[in-house]
Amino acid sequence: MDRRDALKLSLLAGASLAAGGAQAQQACATDGTPAQFTPKKPADANPLEREFEKYAKCPYCGMDRKEHHRARMLVQYSDDLVDGVCSIHCLGLSLGVNIDREPKAIWGPDYGSTAEPRPLMPVEKLSYLIGADLKHAMTKRSKHSFASADTLKEFQAKHGGTVGDFNEALKQSYLDMATDVAMIRKMREERRKKMMEQKQG
Questions:
Q1: Cβ(83)–Cβ(107) under 8 Å?
Q2: In angstroms, what is the C-alpha Rg of the chain?
Q3: For residues 101, 178, 182 and 103, what is the CA-based torsion angle, rounded to 10 degrees?
């Protein structure tokens, strides 16, 4: 994976930095960056160890990462601060707001595996099926990662979509950001209305 390309792509997220659904928190004392946009966990040299215990919830949208293990990702920055996110959508947010931190490693799930939860692998070893009719977290247009090219082709034959590498999937995530944010906001508003109706009923 070309990490410089990943950082360049993250610039495209500038207009959507606050779009991940996280609630506003107190700003960092040192630079005024909203606290939810800086990895809040201590430096972690081994983020894959006890992953779900340490990174249970996505810091940008609050989704349960174990529940969404087929889409979850981890990014470890050069200072060993780690973001455990629910999806490539929220990974894009992390890369965008941590623009001065260079990614040291990024892991994604092998969607084609039958293991529970899906194992994480370095994204440079994964291929992505983009736009298949498969459900995905935080985006209307799915972007699932596969370790096996043969398994990816089987899914593509059944569910459609195009094949790309991690950088292409990340680029498409940024291009989908506006549509996805609008969709997420609508879904959350509908959920809030339903909860209010249930309380009043």
A1: no
A2: 17
A3: -20
Q: Which of 165, 167, 142 is nearest to 155 (CA)?
A: 142
Locate 77 and state its tokens.
């920055």
Give 147-183 pLDDT, tens digit per residue: 999 999 999 999 999 999 999 999 999 999 999 999 9
Q: Enter the tokens of residue 54.
A: 């340490």
Confirm if 76 and 103 have CB atoms less than 8 A apart. Answer: yes
pTM (two decimals): 0.79
Tell me the C-alpha distance between 71 and 144, whole Å.
7
Q: How far is CA 61 from the centre of its chain?
A: 10
Q: Is residue 59 reached through a cis peptide bond, with omega within 30 degrees of 0 on the bond before it?
A: no
Query: 187 is written with which tokens?
Result: 């879904």
Q: What is the DSSP letter of 110?
A: -
Separation of alpha carbons 76 and 55, rounded Å: 12
Angle 162-167-169 (CA atoms, 0-180°, nearest 5)? 40
Q: H-helix or E-strand containing 171?
A: helix 166-200
Determine which helix (DSSP H) or strand (DSSP E) holds 26, and give its type and residue range.
none
Using CB atoms within 10 Å of the CB of residue 130, give its burial: 0 to 12 exposed, 13 to 18 middle, 19+ buried: buried
> d(Cα 125, Cα 148) in Å, to the nearest integer?
9
* Amino acid, single-letter form, for residue 154: E
